[in-house]
Each structure stands twice: as C-alpha cells, then as structure tokens.
Automatic annotation (TrEMBL):
Residues 44-76 are annotated as: Disordered. Residues 44-58 have a biased composition (Low complexity). Residues 1-17 form the signal peptide. Keywords: Signal. This is Uncharacterized protein. The keyword Signal applies. Residues 59-69 have a biased composition (Basic and acidic residues). It comes from the Bacteria. PROSITE patterns: PROKAR_LIPOPROTEIN. The keyword Signal applies.
Length: 94
C-alpha cells in the first residue's frame, strides 16, 4: 500500500513538473532579455567609469602642469633673489 501511494505521489509530481515546465517556456526568453539588459547596463557603467577616469586623468595632468609652472616660477624667483644678493654684495659700500 505504501509503495502504491509513493508511486502515485511520484507520478503526480512528474505530471505537475511537466505542466510547470510547459507554462514556464517563455522564462528563458525573459532571462535572455534580462541578461542582455544587464550586459548593456554593465557596458554603460564601464563607459561611464572610463569617462570619469579620463576626466580625472585630465584634471590631474592639468594640476601637474600648474604645479610645474609654479615650481618654475619659484625657481626663477629664487634665482633672481640670489642674483640680487650677489649684486648687492659686489657693490662697494658707501
């Protein structure tokens, strides 16, 4: 008796699974569409990240250029001050 009940339950389970699979046939299509959307979103995010990195790189380069210009100006000022000191030391004192 238990065996017959078990077999009946198993048969009903297989039938239910077969019916469920037929009803869920469009799901892989939806899953493919979702996967495509996720891939497109990932590509958009990657492009956005690249743009942000490029912008940050450009800003860092510009800041580096400005820092280099400031260092050159500082060096020029130091050289001028040194030259002025040398000239002042070379002048005879009155």
């Amino acid at each position: 008796m238990r065996f017959a009940t078990l077999m009946t339950v198993a048969a009903l389970g297989l039938a239910a699974a077969a019916c469920t699979k037929k009803e869920e046939a469009p799901a892989p299509v939806a899953a493919d569409a979702t996967a495509d959307q996720a891939a497109a979103a990932a590509m958009d995010a990657s492009a956005t990240a690249k743009d942000a990195a490029d912008t940050a790189t450009d800003a860092a380069k510009e800041a580096g250029d400005k820092a280099g210009d400031a260092m050159k100006a500082s060096g020029d000022a130091a050289a001028a001050a040194t030259e002025a000191k040398v000239d002042a030391a070379a002048e005879p004192k009155k």
